[in-house]
Amino acid sequence: xxxxxxxxxxxxxxxxxxxxxxxxxxxxxxxxxxxxxxxxxxxxxxxxxxxxxxxxxxxxxxxxxxxxxxxxx
Length: 73
Known about the structure:
Helix content is 0%, strand content 16%. The protein is mostly beta strands.
């Protein structure tokens, strides 16, 4: 999900991710969305880890995040 005013103008993988507003991703910024164990991905939310029930979950970037060239997420 890419919200308003985001910029990803260059190569790089961005799968199963959530980008806040005004995010700017540098060239070759890459997002890993698959866990090495091929198990369900868990995320930390408030009171502790929550099982998403999904094998692929990408990054969550808040508003105004900027990455440099070649960033690995």
